[in-house]
Design brief:
Length: 119
């Protein structure tokens, strides 16, 4: 789990089928010592785990990625220069799981886009 250590939720709003969360990244987290020293970048796997955790919080249950239809990493996130990131999810229960569309962005800069299915 990354919440509370790698990032902290600073704001969240939720309506049925959608959630908007602002996170603050912990630039001092040990992961950045290896990814990469003196030029930290949020790993793609951490972005994906953040989406998973935001969805789990919205659904109040554990989920597992079943299928990633689209996973685009558009810009790097430097936690020193860009400590705040907005995570927006829309989700809908369908046969076979939860269909999710998600973006990680801040202002006019999009870092990641995701479409997929969680169980």
């Amino acid at each position: 789990m990354l919440a509370g250590n790698f990032y902290t939720v600073t704001a969240q709003s939720q309506e049925p089928g959608q959630v908007a969360t602002t996170i603050e990244l912990n630039a001092a987290h040990p992961i950045f010592q290896g990814h990469f020293p003196e030029q930290p970048v949020v790993p793609g796997v951490c972005m994906m785990q953040t989406i998973t955790e935001v969805l789990e919080s919205a659904l109040d249950r554990k989920v597992m990625l079943k299928k990633a239809n689209q996973m685009k990493f558009l810009n790097m996130i430097d936690p020193v220069k860009q400590p705040l990131v907005d995570v927006t999810l829309t989700y809908k229960e369908e046969e076979g799981g939860w269909k999710v569309n998600a973006t990680l962005k801040r202002d006019d800069k999009t870092f990641m886009k995701f479409q997929g299915i969680f169980n």
